[in-house]
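lol so apparently i was supposed to do this last week
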Amino acid sequence: MQIAWIGTGIMGAPMARRLLRAGHQVTAFNRTRARAQALAADGAAVADSPAQAARAAEVVFTMVPDTPDVEQVVDQIAPVLKQGTLVIDMSTIAPASARRLAQRVAEKKADFLDAPVSGGEPGAIEGTLTIMVGGEREAFERARPLLDQLGQRITYMGGAGSGQMTKLVNQIAVAVNLEAAVEAMLLATRGGLDPALVLEAIGAGAAGSWQLNNLGPKIIARDYRPGFLIKLLRKDLRLLNEAARETTTPLPALSLVTALLEAASAQGHDADGTQALAAVLAAMAGAR
Ligand code: NAP
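anyway here it is w/ NAP bound
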């Protein structure tokens, strides 16, 4: 298929690469051109604007940071959308915005799916992402063969915005599990244990989690290179706080993790991976 891929960052680049390797024709656009250019070695064409990338596309993917970024990209591609073009946003954004974008794209007789993902950079590279999809079911069925190249568990959640609401449910569990993993590693060290041995001992038991097993080794090594940026988790917590308010849902642990992530930002960790939360807890404990 003719595919446009907008946003070739940590997640977008390996996802677009999987579609190229499956034999699709991909035209990539990224704000910083060099990051899209890296896909040229895999056969991608590189566009100068989102509209240029989308002009001949049957399917347009977006994978950019935040709600205003997706809205800006949709503004830019709207003039070139044709009847039947499928726009699939895989970023994590506000559910209400996804609903508005679906309407906007429908005015062009094109289709919009909100299809945010979970599984991080390893899932993007290996094609094992969890994908939660909102929009028209018929559009979902058309998208399915492409989504199968990117993810392992792909679930149709219902109408526009329901993919994003599901992602927020995912993110409250992620954020609280991250905090749990960080506290576990801190106590392991303060309790005089070898934290790597602790991970080996408990990782496959009831305490095991994606956060503990994937980020635990990085916490031990103080390797804060980003898979998922602190800045982007703060964005997700902002969306979660909005959702909690709109639905009158008490999420007490969300307040705690939000405060700790603000501390991480204040301490200069925005461009680090989420495992850098360990540095905040270590500082609270008076440890290095
Ligand atoms: P990232 O590495 O920061 O990549 C975002 C890309 O979007 C960058 O290449 C950036 O360009 C581009 N961009 C930013 N603003 C733009 C705009 N206004 N118009 C066009 N392009 C723009 O972020 P990521 O980790 O890939 O995350 C992308 C999305 O996936 C986010 O919504 C995030 O919450 C979600 N997500 C991430 C993970 C993860 O583990 N990383 C997991 C699940 C979901 P530049 O190169 O110029 O900065």
